[in-house]
Amino acid sequence: MKKVLLFAAAGVSFILSSCSITLPVAVSSNPIGTKVGTASADVYLGVLSFGGDASIQTAAKKAGITRVSTVDIKHSNVLFIYQQFTTTVTGE
Questions:
Q1: CA-to-CA distance for 49 and 47, rounded, in angstroms?
Q2: pLDDT digits (tens, 9 = 90+) for 42-75
Q3: What is the DSSP code (8-state) at residue 81?
Q4: Which H or E run contains 48?
Q5: How many angstroms separate the Cα of 2 from the Cα of each of 12, 15, 69?
Q6: Does the pTM exceed 0.90?
């Protein structure tokens, strides 16, 4: 019985855990600069988006970047109920 309860508890904790992944999206021949800009957007239930614009242009504009070097996107997910997309841009 203890093994069944332990297995059930492990299954529930696995289901309720979140997942996060960061992926490189683009790179250019521009030198990697000292400026870093980020932009995020939150999505609920896969269709309701709040919290702004996670575009490359918005992230670059926030940091004053005119020459983009690299772009990374981070996607965090909690049971597809809540998701967050964050774009990170580096450059000068």
A1: 6
A2: 999 988 987 789 999 999 999 999 999 999 999 9
A3: T
A4: strand 48-50
A5: 15, 20, 54
A6: no
